[in-house]
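Holo prediction. Input below; ligand is zinc ion.
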Amino acid sequence: MKEKLEELKKRLAVVNDLERAAGLLSWDQQTYMPPRGAAARAEQLATLQKLAHEHFIADEIGALLNDLADYAAQLPYDSDEASLIRVTKRDYDRAKRVPPKLVEEMARAASLAFEAWQRAKAESNFKLFQPHLEKNVELRIELANCLGYKDRIYDALLDQYEPQMTTAQVEAIFAPLKQDIVALVQAIARKSDAVNDAVLHREYDVHKQWEFGVQVAKSLGLDFERSRQDKSPHPFTISFSVNDVRITTRLNPKFLPSALFGTIHETGHALYELGYRPELERTPLAGGASLGVHESQSRLWENIVGRSRGFWQFWFPRLREMFPEQLADQTLESFYRAVNKVAPSFIRVEADEVTYGLHIMLRFELENLLVERKLPVADVPDAWNAKMQEYLGIVPPNDALGCLQDVHWSYGDLGYFSTYLLGSMFAAQLYAQAVRDVPTIPEQIARGEFADLLTWLREKVHTHGRKFTLDELARRVTGEPLNARAYVAYLKTKFGEIYGV
Ligand code: ZN
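Structure of the complex:
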C-alpha cells in the first residue's frame, strides 16, 4: 500500500506544480504584465489549467484512490495519509462529474459576461448584463445537476467553496443573526452622529501609506523572506509554495483605510498559507481549508485585531508620527471610533463590520431564488432594491451602486458570497477561544505583540492545511459547531460601547 500511496503522491505533485505555475502566470497578469500581453497569457493559462485538470482526472488516480480506500479506513481520521486520500477523493469525484464541454462553456460565457458587466456597470444599465447573467445562471443550474445534491440545488454550488456546508445549515445560522444585526443597525442609526470619520478622507502620501502597511504586516508576523507585497487594482493573496506567498494592495491617497486594512486583510490570508506543515507540500492538502476558513483568518486580523482599541494603542502614535498634520486634531479614541464608524451604505466592500453581514445575506437569498428559478433574472434589480430597503433602509439610486457592483456574478461564481460572512463568524468564534486559552492576548496586542495569537492560530488552524472542513475545525478547536454566538456578542459589545446602545 505504501507504494501505491507514493505513486499517488507523485502524480498529485505534478498536478500541484502545474496549478502553482498557472497561479504565477495569473499573479503576473494582475501585477506587472503589460496590457497587450493579455491574449497570449490567456492561452498559456488555459493550456496549463487544462494539463493540470487532465493529469488530475486520469483513470490511474481514480484506481489508486480505490485501491487505497480500505487502507485509509484503518488509519486515524486526522492522519496525513487518511486525510490526503479522503480530500483527494472528494476533489476527484467532483472533477469527474463535470463534463469538459461544460467547463469550457462556463469559461467562455464568463469571459463574455465579464466584458458585458464592465460596460453595464460603467453605464449603469442592467439590460446590457441581463442576457449574460441569464446564461451564467443556466450554466450553474446545469453544473449543480452534474455535481448532484440531496436537498437543495444551491448545496451543490456552495459545496465548491465551502465543502460539506449545506444551504439549510447556512439559513439556520443566518436567520437569527439577521434579526440581531438589523436591531443593532437601527439602534446605531438613532445615534449616527456619535462617530465622525472625516479624518480618514484627508490626503495621505501613498509612499508613506505603503511603508506603514509593510511595518504593520511585518509586526503581525509576515516574513518578507517568504513573502512580498505588490500593487494591483483588486487586492488578493496567492501562494506558490509554503515559502512563497504573495499579497497585493491598492493605494488611495484620499482614503486611508483602503491600503491599511487591505494590507492587514491580505496578511491574514498570507499567514494562513504560510502556516501549513511543510510535509503537506505538493499535495491537495497544501493550502487553506475553504473560502470561509480563509476569510476567518483575514477578517480576524483585519477587524478583530486591526480595528481594536488595543491595536491602535500601540500603532496610533506611530501613525501620527508619519502623518503629523493629518492627525494633529486626533486622539487615540477619536481615531479608534473613526475606523469603526457604522453607516448603511450601498457598496459591500466598503461596508462596516455591522452592516457587512446584511449585504451578504441579501446576495445569498437572491442567489438561492435564481437557481431555484423563483426569481427571473430580469427582476434582479427590483428584488435587490427591495431587500436593501428592508435590511438597510436605503435604496441605491442606480444599478451600478446596486446589483451591478460585484464582479462575482459575471464570472458565474454563484454560491460564493456566504463564505464571507461564515468567515467573519468563525473569526469571532476562534478569537474567543484563543483568549480563553491565552488570556493575555489582548494585553499583548496593546503592546504591539502578536506572536502568541499567531502561534495559537498556527497550531489550531494553519498547520492542518486542507485536512478538515470549516465545521470540523470549529468542533475540534472550540468544542462547538460553527455558530454566530461569539460573533453577535463581539458586535454588540464593541459597537454598543462605541455608540452607547
Ligand atoms: Zn479575503
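The first strand starts at residue 227 and ends at 231. That is the main takeaway for now.
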